[in-house]
Amino acid sequence: MAKNKITEQFKKSKFEEVLKKVNVLDKFTDKKEEPQKKKKVLLFKAEVLIRDSKFPAALKVLDEVLGLDANDIAANYQKGLCLFVLRRNKEGLSYVDAAIEENQKLGNPENFNFVILKAGILYGLGVEGKMSKNAYRLWLEKAKEIDLVRAEKFMKNNFKEYKETVDMLKR
After folding, report:
1. CA distances from 81 to 43, 65, 77, 94, 160 (A)
2. Closest C-alpha among 117, 115, 42, 109 to residue 72
3. What pLDDT, on a 0 to 100 scale, did the predictor assign at position 10?
4. DSSP-based three-state secondary structure for 86
5. C-alpha angle with apex 44: 39 to 45, nearest 5 degrees?
6. How many CB atoms lie within 10 A of CB 118?
7. Rg (Cα) of the chain, in Å, rounded?
């Protein structure tokens, strides 16, 4: 099983085929003997499941990764993303916050994906009445500073008040 073939199938969205191969790798990778390799296999498996919109299954895999390393930035971000898509925003906020915090500890620059996800989660909590409807605006501003085009695309796909928000960004 060549790595290039798996990558090619992944790019062509042949997720079922990729998942079969990743499951074989997962089965034969021992987390006690090769914890870092196991973590990489599981993270890739979670990514395949996310791209195939199998969010509950991805959450189970991400729980396994976080069991190996609770501070894993990618796993925390991906779990926050899954919970956001499943509209479990209150839960998702703690995972995206963990990803942001670990990223900062490493001295990395702010990551657009983390920032816009936090804005989306806070927006969702505002819509649900669990937080101020304006709590997301600071994070939206940060996302705008990093990449205005991607921020607008995210808003168009995820925010009901898109026109109002785009107008606010242009000020």
Report:
1. 14, 15, 6, 11, 18
2. 42
3. 46
4. coil
5. 95
6. 25
7. 17
pTM for the model stands at 0.80
Cα 30 to Cα 11, 41, 119: the distances in Å are 27, 11, 37
Q: Is the pLDDT of residue 161 over 60?
A: no
| Dist. CA 80–CA 17, nearest whole Å | 26
pLDDT tens digit sequence for 14-40: 667 666 666 555 565 666 677 787 788
What is the C-alpha separation between 86 and 168, in angstroms, rounded? 27
Rounded CA separation 47/43 (Å): 6
What's the sign of the alpha-carbon dihedral 120, 121, 127, 132?
A: negative
Q: Which residues of 34-54 are buried (b: 16+ CB within 10 A; e: fewer)?
A: eeeebbebbbbbbbbbbebeb
DSSP characters over 134-155:
TTTHHHHHHHHHH-HHHHHHHH
